[in-house]
Each structure stands twice: as structure tokens, then as C-alpha cells.
């Protein structure tokens, strides 16, 4: 990465009690809006990856990072989306949140068996979202070769949860918190 860790962190804003009370939301909008930090982050995510066939982006902020990473790796981009957004036949999986549950979907024909797939998201928190995306890829016979995120909220234990659910999965975070 050509920019320092501090230069990137300076463009991530903590927003207390968003979207609900008690959550400190990491707003990456200033980092995305600045040409130097946006380029540095995309380049760093690309450098961490080996060759892949597809890059998965998780709705919605994952799309912003995954699409340029796919372009630079010469890979296809696959969106993993919330229910009701994808027009074709889908697979879906659900996962538990602190209160309630979430569902994610992917098009059934998104992966060919043996596809090497990198999953990209903005934040790794408890790991539930990333684990759900990994399940969707593997359901179709794709091989998840790594998860790359911009921010990891280490105190929420996502890395350990992923290691339990998907042993050996490489997890890369550019900025640990
Ligand atoms: P989790 O499933 O708990 O790992 O949560 C990760 C997903 O929720 C990512 O797609 C993030 O966009 C979002 N997320 C979770 N916590 C935060 C946070 N503190 N700030 C911004 N986004 C978050």
C-alpha cells in the first residue's frame, strides 16, 4: 500500500448509535470519496489475492470494493444480495444476528464447479455475513480461496467464527480495529 495506515484510518469516521443504539458504525464514505485512499485500498486488496476466476461482493458496500478488485484481477464479479434483488433463480442462506436473522441470495448459475472465488466486503464484524457468502459459493461447487475485507472489528470475533465454520480459509484485513 502506498499510503500509510494512518492516512487510511483518518478517512474512516466512527458514527455512534447508527443504524441502531449501541453500534459504532464505521463510515468509509470519506475514504471512498478521496482518490488516493480509494486507489490505495483497491490496490492493496488486489495485491493480497492470488489468481481467481470470480470475485464476490456482498451487498451493498462490498460491491464498491469487489468490482474494481475483480477488474484488476481479470476475474468476473458476482453480487451476493439481499432477498428480492436478483431477477433469476437463486440459492439463499440465512444467518443469525443479535436480534433476528438475515438472508442472502446468489444466482444459481453464478459459479462453475471448481471456480476459484475471492469474497470481498467492507467490514468483518461477527463473521456471519462472510460465512453466509462462503456457503453460497460452496453450494455451487465454487472454491473460496480467500476473504478480504477493508476493516476487521477484532473484538467481535469474526475471524475465529470463520475459522470454526470454514477451517483453513485465508482471511485478510487491511485495517484491524
Ligand atoms: P457481520 O456479519 O457481523 O460480520 O457484519 C458484517 C457486515 O455488516 C458487513 O457487510 C458490514 O457492511 C456490516 N457491518 C457490521 N458492523 C459494522 C460496523 N460497525 N460498521 C459498518 N458496517 C458494519
Tell me what you see in this structure.
With 177 residues, the chain is an alpha/beta fold. The protein has a single domain (50-176), classed as Rossmann fold. It has helices spanning 5-9, 29-33, 35-47, 61-73, 128-139, 158-165, and strands at residues 13-16, 24-27, 54-58, 76-80, 90-96, 101-107, 116-124, 143-152, 171-176. The strands form three sheets. It has a five-stranded parallel β-sheet, with helices on both faces. Helix 3 packs across helix 4 (61-73). It is globular, with a radius of gyration of 16 Å. The two termini are 18 Å apart. Bound molecules: adenosine monophosphate.
What is the percent of helical residues? 25-40%
The mean pLDDT is 96
Q: Which regions contain 5 or more consecutive residues with pLDDT less than 50? A: none
Major beta-sheet overview = 5 strands, parallel
Give the distinct bound molecules.
adenosine monophosphate
Count of helix runs: 6
Question: Any idea of the CATH class?
Answer: Alpha Beta
Coarse structural class: alpha/beta
- Cross-sheet strand order for the largest sheet: 4-3-7-8-9
Amino acid at each position: 500500500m502506498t499510503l500509510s495506515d494512518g492516512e487510511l484510518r483518518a478517512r474512516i469516521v466512527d458514527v455512534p448509535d447508527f443504524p441502531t443504539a449501541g453500534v459504532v458504525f464505521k463510515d468509509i464514505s470519506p475514504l471512498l470519496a478521496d482518490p488516493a485512499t480509494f486507489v490505495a485500498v483497491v490496490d492493496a486488496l488486489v495485491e493480497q489475492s492470488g489468481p481467481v476466476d470470480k470475485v464476490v461482493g456482498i451487498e451493498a458496500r462490498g460491491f464498491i470494493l469487489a468490482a474494481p478488485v475483480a477488474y484488476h484481477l481479470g476475474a468476473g464479479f458476482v453480487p451476493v444480495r439481499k432477498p428480492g434483488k436478483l431477477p433469476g433463480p437463486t440459492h439463499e442462506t440465512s444467518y443469525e444476528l443479535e436480534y433476528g436473522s438475515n438472508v442472502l441470495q446468489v444466482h444459481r448459475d453464478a459459479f462453475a464447479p471448481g471456480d476459484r472465488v475471492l469474497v470481498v466486503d467492507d467490514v468483518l464484524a461477527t463473521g456471519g455475513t462472510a460465512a453466509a457468502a462462503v456457503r453460497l459459493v460452496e453450494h455451487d461447487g465454487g472454491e473460496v480461496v480467500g476473504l478480504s475485507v477493508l476493516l476487521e472489528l477484532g473484538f467481535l470475533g469474526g475471524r475465529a467464527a470463520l475459522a470454526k465454520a470454514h477451517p483453513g480459509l485465508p482471511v485478510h484485513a487491511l485495517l484491524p480495529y
